[in-house]
Amino acid sequence: MSAEPFSAWFRCASGCEFRAPLTAVVYRCPTCRGLLEVEHDLAALRRVSPDEWKRLFDGRFRTGPWPLGSGVWGKKEWVYPQIAHENVVSMYEGGSPLIRIDRYAREIGLGDVRLKECGVTHTGSFKDLGMTVLVSAVREMQARGVPVRAVACASTGDTSAALAAYCAAAGIPAVVLLPRGKISTAQLVQPISNGALVLELETDFDGCMRVVAELSETPDIYLANSMNSLRIEGQKTIAVEIAQQLGWRVPDWVVIPGGNLGNAGAVGKGFLLLRDLGLVDRVPRLVVAQAENANPLYRAVSAAGRPRAGLEVKPVPARRTLASAIQIGAPVSSGRALRALEALDGLVEQASEQELADAAARADRAGAFACPHTGVALAALEKLAARGQVKPDEVVVVISTAHGLKFSDFKVGYHEDRLEGVRPSLRNPAVALPATLGAVQDAVAACFGRSGR
Predict the structure, then answer these.
(1) Alpha carbon 271 to chain centroid, angstroms
(2) pLDDT for the residue 453
(3) Which has the least CB within 10 A, 74, 295, 311, 349?
(4) What value does the mean pLDDT of the chain take?
(5) How many folded domains does the chain comprise?
(6) Which H helix or E strand runs over 269?
(7) Cα angle: 327, vertex 329, 331; to 5 degrees
(8) Rounded distance between C-alpha atoms, residue 263 and residue 336, angstroms
(9) CA 26, CA 10: separation in Å to the nearest integer?
C-alpha cells in the first residue's frame, strides 16, 4: 500500500485554529501556548477497511521490508505517512513481547495479567518508539533545508539513551541534560557511549526541563522531550501492538507508570484510533500509576474525584523515589494524560516505595525482571485487585517501560536490604559457602528439604 493518499500535520490540542506541517520547528500553539497534537486525515484512513489494515500490519510485523518491519514504521500510515523511507532512522524498535505472568496473577487474585515488555528494544526502554519518529523527522527536515544543528533533551535517563543512540545512527549531534546523581549508572553511560554531549546539572528533572526549553528557543536546537508531539506518534503504537498480539482484541485494563505523562496520552491515543478506524469495537480502561513521592496527577484527580480533561495539575516538589525515571513534579503532558483518562474511563493510583519494591520482587519471582517504574504499575494493580475494582475474569496488560537490567542497583539493593525506607519481604540474598559438597548439600537441604539419600 502506498502512503501517498495519507497525511498528518500539527494542530493545537486546545482547539485553536493553528496548524503547521510536521517539518516545522514548533512545539506549542502560538495563540494559547498549549501543546500540539499530530492530527491525521481520518477520512483518508477510513477509505481502507479494518480488515485491510489488519492484513497490512500483520504482514509487516517484524518481517516487512526496511523499515516496515519495525513495530513503529510497520504502522507508518498512522504515524508519519509523508516521510521519505530514506530519512527513517530505525533500530527495528517495537515488536516487544506480551508475556503472561500467571503465577503473579494468581498470587494477587487475578486470572490473566500480561506484561508488555517495552524495555525489550534497542536502548532498553519504550522511549525508542517515540525517538525513532522524532529523529527521523529531523532527518526529513534537514533534507528539506531546515537548519537543525542538534537535538536536545532533558532526561531522567531513558530519553537521553534513546536520543543519543538514534542521533548517533543518523549522524546528528545530541545534547542531553541530566539531573546529577539522580539516574542509574547504566542510564548515564548509554548517552556517553553514543557520543552525545552529556551535561549533568545540579538540579532535578524539572530544572533540567526548564533549561532545555530555553535552549531550544532557537530553531537550530530541536527539542526532543515528550512535549514534542512527534514522540507521541511512535509511542501510540504500543496500543496497536497490544491489540495485534491479542488477535485484534483489547484487554479490559491497561496499567502504565506515569511521570511526565506523555506515554499515558500516547497509549490512550492509540486505542482511540484503533476504535475510530473500526479495528476494535471498544477501548480498555486506563490506569496511570504514580510514585507516592512524585504524584501531582494523583493528587489532582483525588481532589477532583475523577479524571477529566482540563483539570489543573499543580506542580509538586518531586521527592526522591526508587522509580527515578518518573521522579517528576511538573509533568509537561498532564493535559494529554487527562484527556486519555477521561476517554478511557480511567483511574489514577499511587505506590509507596515499599509497595513498588515488593511488587517488582513479586513479579520477578514469577519470572519477570521488573524495573522500579513497572513496580509502580504492578503495585497499583495490586491495590485495584484487592479493592475488587479489577475483577478476576478481566484481562490486564501492564506496560513495562524499561528493562530491569538498567536498574541492577535497585535489584541488588532490595535483596541485600540496602534500600532506604524499604523492608524487603521477598529478599533472596546470595549465600556465601565454602567450596565443599557438604556445605552445598546442607544449603540445599535447608532450603528444599533433604532428598532422603
Answers:
(1) 15
(2) 45
(3) 311
(4) 95
(5) 1
(6) helix 262-276
(7) 100
(8) 9
(9) 9
Cα–Cα distance, 227 to 262 (Å, whole number) = 7
Those residues of the chain that have pLDDT short of 70 are: 1-4, 450-453
Peptide bond into 67 cis (omega under 30): yes
Cell of 438: 557438604
CATH number assigned to the domain comprising residue 238: 3.40.50.1100
**b/e code 188-204 from CB counts within 10 Å (16+ = b):** bebbeebebebbebebb
* Predicted pLDDT of residue 4: 52
Please check whether residue 206 lies inside any domain of the structure.
no
Q: What is the model's pLDDT at position 187?
A: 80
User: Which cell numbers in the block locate residue 267?
Assistant: 497509549
* 194 domain residue, yes or no: no
DSSP single-letter state for residue 73: G
Decide if 405 is inside a domain: yes
Q: Which residue has the cell 524499561?
A: 402
**Where in the sequence is the domain holding 337, given as residue range(s)?**
98-123+234-415
3-class SS of residue 175? strand
Q: ∠ at Cα 199 (196, 205), nearest 5°? A: 110
Residue count (the chain)? 453
Strand ranges of the sheet holding 19-20, from the earlier edge strand across to the other edge: 19-20, 8-12, 36-40
- Please, are residues 337 and 258 in contact by the beta-carbon 8 Å criterion? yes
196/325 Cα distance (integer angstroms): 19
For the chain, the 3-state helix, strand and coil shares in percent, each to the nearest 5, are: 40, 15, 45
Contacts of residue 303, Cβ cutoff 8 Å, sequence gap at least 6: none
Q: Give whole-number Cα distances, 24 to 39, 79, 304, 409, in Å.
A: 14, 16, 37, 41
